[in-house]
Specification:
The complex is a heterodimer of chains A (318) and B (258). Chain A has 318 residues and is α+β, with helices and mostly antiparallel strands. Chain A has two domains: 159 residues, Orthogonal Bundle (Butyryl-Coa Dehydrogenase, subunit A, domain 1), CATH 1.10.540; 142 residues, Up-down Bundle (Butyryl-CoA Dehydrogenase, subunit A, domain 3). Helix content of chain A is 55%, strand content 9%. Chain A contains eleven helices and nine strands. In chain A, the strands form three sheets. A four-stranded mixed β-sheet of chain A has the order 1-3-4-7. By secondary structure, chain B is of the alpha/beta class. Chain B has a single domain, classed as HUPs (Rossmann fold). Chain B has eight helices and 13 strands. Chain B is globular and about 70 Å long. In chain B, 38% of the residues are buried. The chains are: A alpha+beta (318), B alpha/beta (258).
Chain lengths: 318, 258
Amino acid sequence: MRFAFTDDQRAFADGLHDLLVHEYPPARLREAWAAGRGHEPDLWRRLADMGVLSMMVPGPAGGMGGTLVDSVLLFQQLGRAGVPGPVVEHLVAAPRLAGTPWAGGVVDGSVVVTAALDVDPFVAHADVAEVIVTPSGARHGYAVSAVAGLDEGRHLAEVTGGTLEPLPGTDELADTLAVATAAFLVGLGETMIDLAGEYARQREQFGKPIGAFQAVKHLLADALLKVEFAKAPTYRAAWSLSTAQPTAGRDASMAKALAGEAAYRASRAAMQVHGAIGYTWEADLQLFMKKAWALQRAYGDARWHRRRVSAAVLATPR
Amino acid sequence: MNVIVCVKQIPDPALPGALDSSTNTLKRDGKLILDESDSYGVEMALQLVDKAGGGEVSLVSMAPNGEVSGLRTALAMGAAKAVLVSDPALQGSDALTTARVLAAAVGRIGGADLVIAATESSDGYTGTVPEQLAEVLGLPSVTFAKHVEIDGSTLKASRQTEDGYDEVECPLPALISVTAGVVEPRYPSFKGIMAAKSKPVDTVTAGDLGVDPVGWAGAGQQISDVAKAPERAAGEIVEDDGEGFAKIVSFLENLKVI
């Protein structure tokens, strides 16, 4: 078995990283938040052109035919940039719309799709999406009424009415969303630690940069440890789902629980290093922090996923 | 229309560069990337070929250790093939030798209607290779092109100057050097990245191209010493006692700017 990513998988992630670093710096993200834009059509088009949005759509349908292992580093890069809009949901839902009238549009990006669990009271990105994919099918023609949320790049809405078309192959939707979101959270955690590290090198107190103090170093090192430790279970869960392992559900839950907690820890540490300035509108940190807080609760929080892991472990015969 | 683009593969500018203390030249033994200033030329070539409705974009590059990472990026953008000149004997080559080698590589591909280069590389900055290359190839050269159009067998370009731009025309085939920002380079798509792996890269030595002498032997220059740039001297601080403006005026007068 090969435990490393392939050259292609790394090249795709590098290509996306290059695009996002140049075309979507935090200043652009802040503009989107300020304008109340929960979706970025220009960036969306670029992501479609690159092939990101259709990464998991089969080749004959015009996609890249990638697995979740091929996509997991992409989710991490999207998280590093805090990309708003239904990127995670669209990537996960797109392959499930094969053979529907939306199949072509999800590949070229002209149709925006979001995803939700049937138990979710609110649907993220329903205001910008044409279709909602849930475990029970594809919903369209619905009405939305906005609900206030924490993350300006992830609008929540109550959804009423519409038509539900049954879809084949939505079984692993919840687990796939959990793993994709876990990878996105890992990326958010990395960025928050980077921002805090940069701030700790600049901000001076008692005549030297605060990063010179051991207590600050340890705070960030502990947070980085959590984020790094969340990576392996996230990649493992992507593999388990891609290869239909019997442990896929347990592995997805382990990934989401650990990545959610790691991103939360990173947000706390980065906030403490910044001091009150970190929470202000002008600081980049708040953009990533609030997204992490919203996503750690999305598609099952750490508590729910931990219970699922424990139930799976205890049910395994010794 | 067939276009050949000269691309340089350089050490990643985001990483700290280092000099080889034995030769005083830049260490280029790690992974090299496509020089960003060449990505504009590649993009312009792709657009011109697209507009012409046929033909292809080829690349020529000179790099140590058979390095192709930067070429793959340009191939992923849409170029069709490349000639890479890689030869330990090329270490120490000056700008003119580089131009001779690139000219031979351009000749190896053959049939170019247009050769495109950047105005200068981001790691060497001599800014003379494109003109030397045009001379060696015997082609007319238009430098600092910021806008280019092809009309039949005539090239029309807006040429950046200090005051504005000149509108110039020349017959094809020709060589142009394009400024940064002239077009918006595309990001390689995933399908482009996959396709680039199977595009042909013809790796040759200076000897295969019949260029001799090369390297230190062929160079008309020597690097005798490398020194740190002097630190900037501290500026003058003027305490404003109400007459500070007079000191600023006399300072500007001394510079003869007012």
